[in-house]
Amino acid sequence: MVVTRRSARLAQSEQEKEVDSVDGKLKGSPGKNGTPVKTNGTASKEPTPSSAKEKSHPMVFIVFISLLLDLLAFTMILPLLPALMELYRSKDDSGLFQWLLNKVEYFQQILGVPDRYNSVLFGGFLGSLFSFLQFVASPIMGAFSDRFGRKPAILISLIGISSSYVLWAISTNFAVFVLARIVGGLSKGNVSLFLAVIADVSNSATRGKGMAFVGIAFSVGFVLGPLIGALFAQWSYTQESQTWFVVPASLALALALADVLFVAVAFKETLPEGKRAKSVASSVSQAFAYINVIDLFKFSAVSNLDKQSQNRLRRIGLTYFLYLFLYSGLEFTLTFLTYHAFGYTPMQQGKMFAFIGITMAVLQGGYVRRIPEEKTHWAARLGLLLTVPSFQFVGLAASPSLPYRQVFLYIGLFLFAASTAFVVPCMSTLAAQYGSHDQKGKVMGILRSLGALARALGPVIASTAYWSVGSSFTYIFGACLLTIPWYLIKKAK
């Protein structure tokens, strides 16, 4: 299950994370004597590169192509998810879906929940399960790559992803589809590994360019992937096939297999033997620092911060977590809301994703990336504040008695895209100001893990609320709760 969290918001989020390895160690920029430049633990800046025109390493382009293939396949399911869940609800009358229905039937009768909302509830559980497995597996796969090299770890991830698409293509019942999402979640460590590859082959002069290529891959993938998936699903509908999802699933599998072959042939190892971890145990122990929840919120892995800087960094981390917890849950249920309230087909869902993605890409490329450092805090507050009316408009649009509902919906989607374009990159920039240069990777790794944890919890909570009290109340109440992270970041300055 994909948490639709994702379009260019994810692109820019990954672009900001300067990771040297998955365990979070960023290479220190050399000072005049060749040693890493360190600060007093507060805001710090890298020395100006000696050559701003230095070319990116060829492996950066290999990463870009592989990541683009992966994301095109990964995002195809986004507009199809509500229709898929409805298919299993109607066809899987003696399998896992029906068994789950029997478990919630008592509460469904008490609350008066329509049968069609059950798909939202089960979809939310699957979305959270996928993200939780990714949250746990990514650091462990990173630890494996630290010991045995990037290439074998990437190939294992890509083969696992391909296997999940095989399962999806044959998922004529809900149990197989659940298994497909489990395999996919456990295998989705390739993004973190690719970030490590870029850090392996980059220096302070070229790292930004490498991360920019990651951002472009996400932008293109999350704009085109949903449209491609919807287009092939629509074609399958015209064939009156009961297994219409097989065509987009098979196309996703073909792209995934092409990705495996491409990496196997074109990718050259970027972590030399001499720089690898001495044992898997030591590398895994460091990886678990990104799974321990208490340590994550305390930023325990970041040392030498003064008390004031430590408190500000923790507040930024808490703000980031609360924002993504609320945001990802409401974002995940968006496709179900448009499916139930507006009767959107997969093609209309794909166009909606394209509208959101293009809006974010324009704002990020045209304005957000040019925001000066001194205005980053203001921009983060603005983005968080815009999130509140964005979800309020969407919640109001879900009301069948409201005139001009489509207008309200697209005003909400525009504000949604605008807020997303600002918040994650600006929050990442704020967090990156803390810690010495050789600890910035730890800061960004912890921030990434907090985000992954939030996305593992948000969908199941929001979907449960959607199922029990309805979409309008869930969105409007969730929008009100989003004032909390805005207040926290306002106090973090």
Walk me through this protein's architecture.
The chain is built from 20 helices and no strands. By secondary structure, the chain is mainly alpha-helical. It starts with 6 loop residues before the first helix and ends with a helix.
Radius of gyration: 22 Å
Order of helices and strands: HHHHHHHHHHHHHHHHHHHH
Strand content: under 5%
How much helicity do the residues have? Answer: over 70%
Largest beta-sheet details: none
Distance between the termini: 37 Å
Low-confidence stretches: 1-52
Identify the overall geometry: globular
Structural class determined from secondary elements: mainly alpha
Count of beta strands: 0
Write the layout of secondary structure elements.
Elements: H1 7-16, H2 58-74, H3 81-91, H4 96-111, H5 118-148, H6 150-169, H7 174-187, H8 190-201, H9 207-238, H10 246-266, H11 280-287, H12 293-298, H13 307-332, H14 334-342, H15 346-366, H16 376-397, H17 405-432, H18 440-469, H19 471-481, H20 483-491
